[in-house]
Each structure stands twice: as C-alpha cells, then as structure tokens.
Amino acid sequence: MLLLLLFFCCCGVTMIGMVLFLSALLRTRMMVAIVGYAFALLMSLASLIVAYIVAYGPGNQQYYLLIPTVPIASAFHFIASCDESKCLSFYDMTSFNRFTQSLLFMIIDGVLLSIVGLYIDAILPGRYGVGKHPLFPIVSLYRRVKSAVNKKRVGSEKEPLIDNVVVNLSGEVVDEDVANENQRASLVDKDSVSVVMNNLYKAYDKKEALKNFSLVVEKNQCLGLLGPNGAGKTTLISILVGLISPSNGTCYVNGYSILDEIDLIQQNVGLCPQHDLLWSDLTVQEHLLFYARMRNIPRKQEKEYVDRAMQSVGLLKEKSNALSSTLSGGQKKRLSIAISIIGNTSVVLLDEPTTGLDPTTRRQIWDIIDNEKSNRSIILTTHSLDEADILSDRIAIMAGGELKCVGTSSYLKNRYGSGNKLSVNYDPSNKDAIDNFVINEVSAGAAKVNSTYTGFSMYDLPKILPNEKSVSDVFRLIENSKAAVGIKDWAFSQPTMEEVFMNIVALE
C-alpha cells in the first residue's frame, strides 16, 4: 500500500508539471481540454510501447524516461508484472531498480515541466499580463545590483522647460503644458515621484489607444484623469496595473519599471475598479484578510492592517462581519476602496468610484478619498467634473489617446474657460436698458450677449475685467444699480470644469 501511495504521489508530480506546461502553451479552456485529452491519450498509448521497450529492450535506455508519461507507464508495467511469489517490497526501495528509477524520473519530469511552463507563462503571459524579458532572472539581478551601486542622478542634467507651443514629430501642434510634461517625464528622477509615464503607446491591431502619452504623478498627490469614452483611460489603467503591456514606451511606479518589475509594482499599487469585484459568500473582514495575505503582510500584523482599512472607510463597527452580498451599493464601493488601500499601498487607482451612487453616498466617498490622498498618490478617473474639481490637485484631460492639457483646476479654468458669465432676469420691456448697462457700464464694452429669452439674458464677460475691475466691484455696481435699471435677479459665474472639458474635447 505504501508503494502504491508513493507511486500515485510521484505520478501527481508529473501530472502537475504537464498541466502547467500545457496551460502555458494553450490559453483557452476549450483548447486545454481538447489538446490535453488528446495528448494524454496518445502519450499513454505511446508510453505503453516505449515502457515495454525499456523493460525488455537491449542496452541502457533510461533516456526514454524523460518523456513525461513513459516513467508512469514503466512503473505501472512493473507493478502489473508482479505476482505473489516475487514482487517489490518497501525494503527493496533502497536499491536502484526499474521501479525506483521510474519514480525518480516522474519527479524529474514533473519539476522540469513545471519550470518550463512557469518560464513560458512569464515571458508569454497571453492576453492579460506583461511579458518578462527572456533572460529576466539575470536582467533583474543585474538591474538591482546596478541600482544599488550607481543611483541615477538627473538634477544637474535637467534642461529648462519649454515656454512656447511646439510641433511634434508628426507635425501636430502640441500644447505648451503638454510639451513641458513630456520633457519633464523624460528628465525627472523616477525615484523622486510616484508615477512616470514616458511616451506610452498602445495599439490594438490598427487602432491606436494611446499615442505617446507622457505624464508625471507626484507623491501624495491626487491626479484627476478626465476624458470622453474611448479616450484611452481604461487602457492606461490596465497598463499601470500590469493587465496589458504597452506597444512602446515605458512607465515607472515608485522607481520600478512596468516592463520587467511588474511584480514589485503590484505589491504597492491598489486598484478600485468601476464594477465591484467581490465574493458574495465572504465577509468584509474576510475580503480584507485575503488581500492582506496577497500583499505578504505578516500574520501578526494582519488584524491591525484590516481594522485600519475598515476604519478608514467606516465599515469597522457595523459591517466587519457582514457578507458582501448584504451590503448596499455605497458600502460595496467603500469595501473596494478599502481593498485598494490595504497594506499601505503607495499608489491607488480609482476607476470612476462614485458612478451610480446617490449624492449622499458620493459625498462620503469624496471624504474618504480626500483623507487618503495625504498618505499616498491617487489617480482618479471620473466622468464627474465636480468630483475632479474638488478632489484633484492636478487635472489631466485626454482625448483620442493623447494628453490634451494638464494643470491645476484654477489654471485650466483660467486658460481654457470662456470667461465669466452674467445671467440677468428683468422685465421684458427693459431689455435695451439692461443690455446697455451690462455692456457699457459693467464691462466697458467688453461683454457679449450669449443667449436671450423673454425676460432673461446671459452675457459673456472677459476673464480679466476692464479698468482693473474686480469681481467685488461688479457685484457692488450691480447691487447698487439693479433697482434703477430694472434687474429682478442676477447671477455671476466663473468658468467651470465642464466648460473647460467641452472646449478641450471640441478641439479633438
């Protein structure tokens, strides 16, 4: 019985190696099932023939045992040939006979197939994942030694940033801020910032999803990433987390390259996907324990990290032992955010975290993000322009796979906004007097009528009011004169992120 148990254990090692090898070569479940069964059937028939040759053939033929299924068939053939008078006992295992030889080669074949399968999977990951360099063990060791011996210095080599609009290699005019960001991404010390994206390019067949995209994310900064559907935001996020590899260009996260150090990056990057990826039969605490162990948090500190993550999103007291299937939509989103921040991840990617949530829950999520951005860098993709305006330290707008503009919210409003707007309600009979007052007295001839309806007009005012007037001067003038000119109600608004976004996208 012990010999049979040993035989099946060694047979299992070979089977595991074969599965790893075949799964690395065949990427779909259907192909694995078809080829796997066909391979097993053909190899079994061939192995019986070869095993007979090994058993009764002339000369030393151990090299046949390197064929994965041959040692299994050889051992099985040996067991089947035993009779009551003469058979292998457990004490005979100390000698190197045909049975022990077969067991040894089962282990050797299994280990070799496992190594080859894991290697193929590492350099050719398939549809998802970033392939490593064919010599990645040597390259990784070389880069670590080189990094430890000689730290890259770029401070004294930096060139002044570009002050004017430039033209790229394809002849297209590039915004000066985008040109500065491109140059900064190529010169910045990758260890001094959280994320450096340098000329990222990704094409699916003939469709370009990203076109030489460059961007820098500072430490402890929230970057709002805006763009219409199909702008390339999802592709960019997928590259940053290692789901896909760029066709060209590179990216560094915490100084690690996504091309050959993605394993180190994934230990320090958290992702909150747009659609919650939760298990309905696990509790909140069990979800966080699972991800804490995936991040190699020491067992003694797991409880501390889990409690801290639940406390950060407000799930510690009431919902720690609740199944995820019993949580509301907002609570599920908070759990997803907790998963992304557990383990003190230094970079967190939030993919539309408030989509589909009610205003109250949305505000709660905003508070969580605002609290967490002081401890880590956050890249926030959203279609809510108010959300980006409130939470982001810098905002980047992309369209057609390209970076169109980048800067603080106030800077983008001032540069790309159409100016201030003045809305006035009045008696329809006073329209001419109202137009004269706003155009000549409020703006000194600089205002233009944007739209007019019965008893209502909207005026476009310049970004910088003439005669060095401030906004408070305009407020004071209108309040003091509204009764005389017949103004019933009025409103003054400055440029919004929605206006900036529409102006940028309209240029695409």
From TrEMBL:
Residues 195-425 form the ABC transporter domain. SUPFAM superfamilies: P-loop containing nucleoside triphosphate hydrolases. One of its GO terms (molecular function) is lipid transporter activity. Pfam families: ABC_tran. The chain crosses the membrane at residues 31-56, 63-80, 100-120. It comes from the Eukaryota. GO terms for cellular component: membrane. The keyword Membrane applies. InterPro entries: AAA+_ATPase, ABC_transporter-like_ATP-bd, ABC_transporter-like_CS, ABCA, P-loop_NTPase. It is found in: Membrane. Signal peptide: none annotated. It is a multi-pass membrane protein. The keyword Transport applies. Keywords: ATP-binding, Membrane, Nucleotide-binding, Transmembrane, Transmembrane helix, Transport. PANTHER family: ATP-BINDING CASSETTE TRANSPORTER SUBFAMILY A ABCA. This is ABC transporter A family member. It comes from Acrasis kona. The lineage of its organism: Eukaryota, Discoba, Heterolobosea, Tetramitia, Eutetramitia.
